[in-house]
Design brief:
With 234 residues, the protein is of the alpha/beta class. The protein has eight helices and seven strands; from the N terminus they run E-H-E-H-E-H-E-H-E-H-E-H-H-E-H. The chain is 38% helix and 17% strand. Helix 2 (46-56) links the parallel strand 2 (32-39) and strand 3 (62-66). Bound molecules: guanosine-5'-diphosphate (GDP) and magnesium ion (MG).
Amino acid sequence: MSKLSIIIPAYNEAKTIRRLVEKILAIPFPIDFEVIIVDDSSKDRTYRIAKLLNERDLSKKIRLFRNDANRGKGYSLQQGFQNVTGDIVVVQDADFEYDPVEIPSLMQPILAGRADVIYGSRFLGALRPQGMAWANCIANHFLTFLTNVLYGSRLTDMETCYKLMRVSILKELSLSARRFDFEPEITSQLLKKKIKIQELPISYHGRTASEGKKIKARDFFIAVWVLLINRFKP
Ligand SMILES: Nc1nc2c(ncn2[C@@H]2O[C@H](COP(=O)(O)OP(=O)(O)O)[C@@H](O)[C@H]2O)c(=O)[nH]1
Ligand SMILES: [Mg+2]
């Protein structure tokens, strides 16, 4: 095991992308790493900032891609996944709700050969993490509960962005989700393949819609639908 690939899907994240990437570059990861930024055709300065970061990055750890139009988080992740050169992959949202300094400890069980997939759970530390709106909190618990009922799992946070796995496992999946249906789709495929998902606690600082949170009620219903159809799909 020699390299970590951190994928950052970014859509209109000019406020946080620089700070996030600079923070990642300063983390003493136990293995080599690359940062793959996929700009989802942002309308703000996200791409320009990412380009500058890329040009100034003497360590050559940053790789930058850009979608030709706004296509969604799932699509952006696919672009990233197709370009990984590492053996372990993790998704890092661009908005700093999740703190990348926690990634090295999440990698430990995989590096030690004790796990193939790790989910960072926001709910192992608190039932309602800091800054998470009540509606989002209840939706998260419900979607995790539904996952557990349908797939016989015992997860506490299906929707977490921190999903780490061996690239060899990722390559076994056939993902088609384009938007926020990514989380239920990847989780159901892993569980259907009987791949064990191990959870570790993480911290979380939720942001509000005015700060740029874009997930909506409709994404909740899409997630329910995706969990159901994947369960009964042959
Ligand atoms: N909302 C949204 N986010 C996108 C899109 N493409 C990439 N992303 C990124 O996906 C991540 C998650 O989005 P966010 O709005 O924070 O959703 P949430 O934290 O799950 O509620 C962020 O890093 C976004 O920049 C897109 O088309 N729409
Ligand atoms: Mg977010």
